[in-house]
Amino acid sequence: MEPIEIVNLTPDRLEEALAVFKVSDWDEDSLFYVKAEMQAFLKGDINGYIRAHFIVAIVDKRIIGVAAWAPSMCSFWLYELSWATVLPEWRHRGINSLMLTERLRQIRAHHGSEVFSVMVCTWDNPMYTQNGFVPMEPQGRRSLDKKGKCLLLAQFGLATKTPPVHW
Ligand SMILES: CC(C)(COP(=O)(O)OP(=O)(O)OC[C@H]1O[C@@H](n2cnc3c(N)ncnc32)[C@H](O)[C@@H]1OP(=O)(O)O)[C@@H](O)C(=O)NCCC(=O)NCCS
Description:
The protein has one domain: Gcn5-related N-acetyltransferase (GNAT) (Aminopeptidase, 3-Layer(aba) Sandwich), CATH 3.40.630.30. By secondary structure, the protein is an alpha+beta fold. It is globular, with a radius of gyration of 16 Å. The chain has helices at 14-23, 28-43, 95-111, 126-130, and strands at 5-8, 53-59, 62-71, 78-86, 116-122, 134-135, 150-156. The structure holds coenzyme A. Coenzyme A binds next to strand 4 and helix 3. InterPro entries: Acyl_CoA_acyltransferase, GNAT_dom.
């Protein structure tokens, strides 16, 4: 497989990143929110404040996947994963797994060595299980309007060594 690079979204790639959501048929509401979040990430109006941090997967200079993480407003020890999308022709090849690893690395670098938790609302699957995520809603209580998705939560303990921060 071609080399895959996972990097932070940059302003020159905003439209290309949005196009990944459009070809993946995300609805109008989602497109509105993801564009606003990306613009806030790239040129937020409060100095030093960023809510959602976007990363992109690049192959041969082309974006094939996008994903984000954000500190939760509930608590500073809680983080959210969101907006994971991979171009249809690149799915099932581990791209989102790479983007999950990078997002967890960035959250640890941002948070420091203290304990933190990460939540995501999606389908329960081995990729998340292997990374310590457990479902917060029992199978029988997942409503149909969530399309089978549920809240997954993972807890990360004290880090013995904090990795260097690269921004
Ligand atoms: C979900 C999606 C991002 C997975 O990307 P991917 O690069 O194919 O995932 P990987 O190959 O790294 O994943 C390894 C496994 O974990 C599953 N997985 C990965 N990310 C997932 C996610 N966010 N939610 C549920 N399952 C996921 C995949 O189904 C895959 O299993 P499979 O190959 O047997 O299907 C991709 O299918 C996609 O863009 N779907 C449309 C958008 C979407 O539904 N996003 C999630 C919204 S919550």
